[in-house]
Every structure is written in structure tokens, then in C-alpha cells.
Amino acid sequence: MSRAWTAQGEFGNRWAMQLVLWLARRMGRRVARLALPPITAYYLLRAGEARRQSRAYLARVLGRPANLADVARHMHCFAATILDRVFLLTGRDSALDVRVNGEELLKAQAESGQGGLLLGSHLGSFEVLRALGVNRLGLPLRVLMYPEHNGTLTRLLAALNPAVADTVIPLGGIDSLLRVKERLEAGDLVGMLGDRVAESDKILTCDFLGGRAAFPRGPLLTAAAMHVPVLLFFGLYRGGRRYDIHFELLTPALDLPRAQRDAVTTELTRRYAARLEHYTRLAPYNWFNFYDYWQS
Description:
Structural class: alpha/beta
InterPro entries: Ac_Trasf, LipA_acyltrans
Helix content: 40-55%
Organism: Acidihalobacter aeolianus
Strand order of the largest sheet: 1-9-8-2-5-3-4
GO biological process, one term: glycolipid biosynthetic process
Largest sheet: 7 strands, mixed
Number of helices: 12
Low-confidence stretches: none
Order of helices and strands: HHHHHEHEHEHHEHEEEHEEH
Distance between the termini: 6 Å
Protein name: Lipid A biosynthesis acyltransferase
Number of domains: 1
Number of strands: 9
GO molecular function: acyltransferase activity
Shape: globular
Radius of gyration: 19 Å
């Protein structure tokens, strides 16, 4: 199982991040994107392990050896989505072409008052979901995340929109699950990412992109325990100014005897992995897990 992401340090420094944020806010997206090539070059030169993992992943998903141009495109895609978080968080996203598939599922679930889990991944942009849900649709959305991972960047971006930052439920706290339970019972939607394994997670090993990878079982076990439906979402960056958001129903509300819970959530976790593989193949440069995901 791979928990290597927990040991990854944060790349870049605070001053460089602040400079890019300043460019974005004062000069706009077109000017700020001029910083993407040097940022990409910096990571290519300085982030050796991420570069190696990118090359290995791309060879797996593309079905051919990945060259330096492939890795540069991968890192450029990552940097572009980070930059666009500035515009999404500050409501200055009119320059982005965001296309939504399955928005009616999201609205219907919010209007039901039943609550629900939105299960995403580190594929593409998570921020585009928060911008759509909170800023554009005004949905009752909470997000589970580890705020201390990439802490400097997280704090800088959180300062751009404290209202959005307040929707975060920190993972790893003694009351994290209690707060999730409270929000679901209040009819809120709770977003979480289901593709990384933390130290305390129960895991399931699934077929994924030609190998076997570990996935956390927590999200589906939580949905079963809380009796709420699960929507999948993927915010794919398609280059330029375009994002494609996809929502799918993974399962309606689960009301299972405890004896059946393990078998049902196992199958649902496998379906999640299969859908993640589908969208990863649609947008291979959107995969932002720069560590050995298939580590044995």
C-alpha cells in the first residue's frame, strides 16, 4: 500500500508563491500564466522524485515510454490548475469555460435535504467543484481535507476566500467524523477525496491502470454508516481555459444490515477505482499524485 504522499515535502517557497498570487490578482490570468513555463522548469529541475514518478505513471497510462516533454506537460497541467484556484476562490472565474455534466444530480441531492457524500480524487481540480457548489450554486457544501499537507500554499489560498476556507472539516482530528455526521444530518453535502490512503485507513487493493493499488475504504463505510448516497465528481482540466466537471451517482442511500456492509462497500470501492481509471485515461495529465502510487 502506498502512503508515501504523507512524507512528501512542500515544493517552492512562500515568496515565490506570493509573487504568483500577486501577479494573478493584479495582472489577471493571461499575464499570470506567463509564469507557468518557468514554474514548470523549476519543478523539472528541482523535484527529482516527482519527475521520476511522473515519468513512471505516464508510461503506464500512455502505454509507451514517457519523454521529458510528457513530464513537462504533466507538471504544467498541475501548475495551471493551482494558478486557476486563485480565480476560482475569488469569484473571478468568468474567464474560465466550465462545462458541467450531471449538474442536475448535484442540485437534486442538495434539494432533497438528505445530505450526501461527494467522492472525488486528486485527478484534476477539486477547487472547481467548490467554486461551482459554494460560489455559483450556493449549496451547503463541506469539504474534508488535511489542511497541513502543503500547508503554506493552503494557507495562502485560504486567505483569498475565508468563507470557502470555513467550509473545511480538518481530517485527522478527534472530532472529524462527528462533524461529518452533524453536517450530513443537517442535509449538507460533504466532499472528500477517495484515492489516497492515510495511516489509519482500512484499505482495499483494487485493479487500477494495469496494476494493483490500495484505496481507502473509509468513504464508503462512512456512507453506509450514515445512510447517505454517494455522488462521484471529477473536475478535469482540458487545457487553455476549459474545465469539464462530471457528476455520477455511485450509489443511492445505503440501508444495509451490518453483515452485508463489508461486501457491498467492497464492491462500491472497486467501482470507484474503475471510474477513476476511466476519467484518468480521458485526461492523463490531470493525475496529481506525484509519488509511487502502486508501491508494494
